[in-house]
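Limitations
The structure tokens in this dataset are predictions for the assembled complex, not deposited experimental models. Users should treat interface geometry with appropriate caution, especially where small molecules or nucleic acid strands are included. An illustrative entry is reproduced here so readers can see what is and is not provided.
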Amino acid sequence: MFKDFKITEGRPLYIQLKEYLIRMMTNGHLLEHQKLPSTRELSSLLAISRNTVLTAYADLEQEGMIYAVKGKGHFVSHVETFQSPTIELNWTEKINEQTFLSEKLDLIKHGVRWNKEMISFTSIAPDEKLFDVENFKKAFLNRMSIEGDIVLNYGYAKGYKPLIDYLLNYMELKGVDIRNKDILITNGFTEGLDILLSTLNKKYGRVICENPTHHAALKLFRLHGYDIDGIEMEDDGVNIRELEKCLSKQEYDFAYFIPSYHNPTGIVTSSEKRKKIMDLFSAYQLPIIEDGFNEELRYSGSHQAPLAAFAGNGNNVIYIGSFSKILFPGLRVGWILADKELIYYLESMKRARTVHTSTLDQAVLYQYLNDGYFEKYIKKAKAVYKKKYELAVQYCKQYIPCKRITSDGGLHLFIELDHNIDSQKLLEKCYQKGVVFSTGNVFYTDSSGQHTLRLGFSRLNEKEIIQGIKIIGDTVKHNYGG
Amino acid sequence: MFKDFKITEGRPLYIQLKEYLIRMMTNGHLLEHQKLPSTRELSSLLAISRNTVLTAYADLEQEGMIYAVKGKGHFVSHVETFQSPTIELNWTEKINEQTFLSEKLDLIKHGVRWNKEMISFTSIAPDEKLFDVENFKKAFLNRMSIEGDIVLNYGYAKGYKPLIDYLLNYMELKGVDIRNKDILITNGFTEGLDILLSTLNKKYGRVICENPTHHAALKLFRLHGYDIDGIEMEDDGVNIRELEKCLSKQEYDFAYFIPSYHNPTGIVTSSEKRKKIMDLFSAYQLPIIEDGFNEELRYSGSHQAPLAAFAGNGNNVIYIGSFSKILFPGLRVGWILADKELIYYLESMKRARTVHTSTLDQAVLYQYLNDGYFEKYIKKAKAVYKKKYELAVQYCKQYIPCKRITSDGGLHLFIELDHNIDSQKLLEKCYQKGVVFSTGNVFYTDSSGQHTLRLGFSRLNEKEIIQGIKIIGDTVKHNYGG
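Predicted assembly:
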């Protein structure tokens, strides 16, 4: 007995001993009313200080797990034995259709599995090597010293006030008229969209969006039971004639657009098209959900105002923003900027479903932004990503025989191959050679896009980008000519 | 011009200047192609260093907001003007019924408003003065130095692996058989329950639970369209005969129980009743959602194993836990421990809806727990809350004429007054005297409980507890005799 006590680093010893003794009781190695070794005995047996044993015994006694008898030592208290009949439910029978759909559309579960030796173009997450951990620590310590106790207690469903104010100013600087608007803080973009979809009346059950578009958004539209009409992407944004045709023929609940560094095509919708989109949606009195995806990742060209700015003092644009995509994805913080009335209701839904977004995340993010670290970080990050972007574009043009490469910046390129090339089959061949990417079909609203692929380059170094692209190019040429 | 530039503390000056200039452009005070003052002029005009102006100009140029002409200075670039027709949608028309219900059931929006001079018994949040901010900082810095870059990048929908492993061990020490079980980390208890309700098949549309019970859970059952049958609470847990009668008469999808420090009654279900409940639910092959609410806040008596432990190697108990309630509510971290198969599906739903819970929150919480700070904190917190608890019980018994006071510990008491006393009216009278509390009716599954109230004492000092209880007692006596 007591010979299998193993010490692990970093955790207080008295807790380890306590937990070890509890395990002995629950698994039947220490029985009810059995006498424990004296503290002196146990400390010598386990070669730990007597104080450690004393603390562990005192805790166990205080928790009612053992009891002391004066002059006789410590004994095990009542040990609960669990003799209820155990039942084995079939949980799969209890899962609803929506959940099966979420599992079916779960890219992480069904995507290609790759290992660390491979070159993976699947991620569009930021490169953690660029993270500004030291300034993040400073921001944390700064905020904690200002109001650590408040940061750690319950916050408000609407969000952390200093962050909301910061973001209102931030949106105003993008040209957005914030009068009669308000902000709700969410656990990133995805929760923002999900709460919004849970709140809006589904009158027509139909949404219009770019085709292809963000997979997570498509998944949520489908889970909420919407039919989806996708509009072809031209090099400067959606095909306006096609959009107009759809709007004139069909009723929609709302549109979903990603005007900047569109996922997956990387296209930035031109200023002219933004105006045309807004004119059309004003005429049809339709709401737009604007995904502010990676708006900050501009490497060249001039500033583009979001659709929310083009809306002026109108209220039909719901802007969902997030710093997670380029700053710190591990912090789940996003925001919805929309009409005050709408935010009022979204707030109740947010409170019912997740109470509020982590105050810690919000407060540290606020401090980091306010201290100007974000500006410094984004300059550094942009310089690095721009180089990778230009390299990727150059090598794709040179090595991959393709019909079209799109991307005006951001962290990924989108490639259309010849229509006879199935990118899933190409992926299987590239996988053999140690290269993986995202097949484009998952981003399409219909069954098209079998011949497309997305290359995320943010987390690869230059050598890997070049080598990976060459392998994809060679595989295309070898199998399909070129 | 430039005379209204105001400097605020704490934010880098060049950013403040940049934002000021952007505002001048967007609001029409600086026009397209207008010449900006030279850096020398502007620095002297605003009494700031020339370097600050240089940095701001360089940034604006890099962002395409201004352009430089060699030998001539800086000029304003194209300024977007927004002339789209603005539209005014009626958002209330676009809100669905479920959202109106969430607003109607939103206690924060419709609860009593009180100010800081009043004595409020409404909160059951922990007292932030007890927070162990210094050790929390240590845990943060410790974790960041181990893997800061990983903590800040995307995590997994299922949760942060070290925390999951910690919690599996934690649950095992409570006597839970973790074979064929798994854990999903959620944004606190509330998201856990919401995701679960979104995942389960609604076969009968009916849930059975204690009456009264946790308001946030009732709200979610209602939002998910469940009918609710509540079972009367006796001093040692639900009335088993009544429970059995319901189960024999009616089909249910599942039950919801809070066996320890039940909210709002504070009752701890006895070990005998826990066994009986498990036997019944085994016989009826029904799942139980167990709310592990404040299980750690035991001030006396022996350790009580959760229902999940009584289930043995059966799989019908879904345990939802959270440290937020007593540790750091500002961190939104909870967990679901359940059958592996069920967790597999819950994971996909979690990913679809919020991607994952903040890795920062999870990682720092893990470090805090693993370093043994939680054990120290809970000892200190228990000593303080125990005193407040005993004081509150003593004074309630002495001063408030009532039929029943329940609470075996935790951070609140529940009081049943004479049936002819409406606690809403009592609240209005106490409000006039500077004391507020939660009326009990919101915790009931039916329209009963008009004569009940909940007193949360965690954030009040001893003087306030005594004074507040005396005022409530006097108000009862004065208005209803006693």
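Some entries come with short summary sentences. For this one: Residues 13-76 of chain B form a domain with the Arc Repressor Mutant, subunit A fold (CATH 1.10.10.10).
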